[in-house]
Write a structure and sequence with these properties.
With 121 residues, this protein is mainly alpha-helical. 1% of the residues are buried.
């Protein structure tokens, strides 16, 4: 692999692009050459990614197959805490009389679940 220390080149730019570079240079207070180098560095990765072929099905499964036990334990604890909070909120609402017992249960027969308005159930 060759290392290119300096590469002088000429770019042919259309009028619209020249105006955009002029405007960007006046806003950023950068030299046009620096601005074009930054734009090339920023956009070159996008162009390369766009032209690469998509990865085959299952390409990343090995990378994500092993989950650390500590992370699994933390995720389970987090979900248990969230579920506990939801159940405590439901019990508190029922205790206050804001909702009828069983009104927050899952609907029967494929009906869509609706939340009762507080104090109106």
């Amino acid at each position: 692999m060759a290392y290119i220390e300096h590469m002088r080149t000429t770019l042919n730019l259309d009028g619209e692009l020249c105006q955009e570079i002029e405007q960007a240079a006046s806003v950023t207070k950068q030299k046009k050459s620096n601005l074009m180098r930054m734009a090339l560095r920023t956009g070159l990765g996008m162009i390369v990614n766009r032209s690469q072929a998509p990865r085959p099905e299952g390409y990343f499964t090995k990378a994500y197959s092993r989950r650390p036990a500590e992370r699994v334990h933390q995720q389970n604890a987090y979900m248990a805490r969230r579920l506990s909070n939801v159940l405590n909120d439901e019990i508190a609402l029922q205790t206050m009389g804001a909702v009828k017992p069983g009104s927050l249960d899952a609907p029967k027969g494929g009906q869509q679940r609706t939340r009762p308005v507080l104090g109106l159930s």
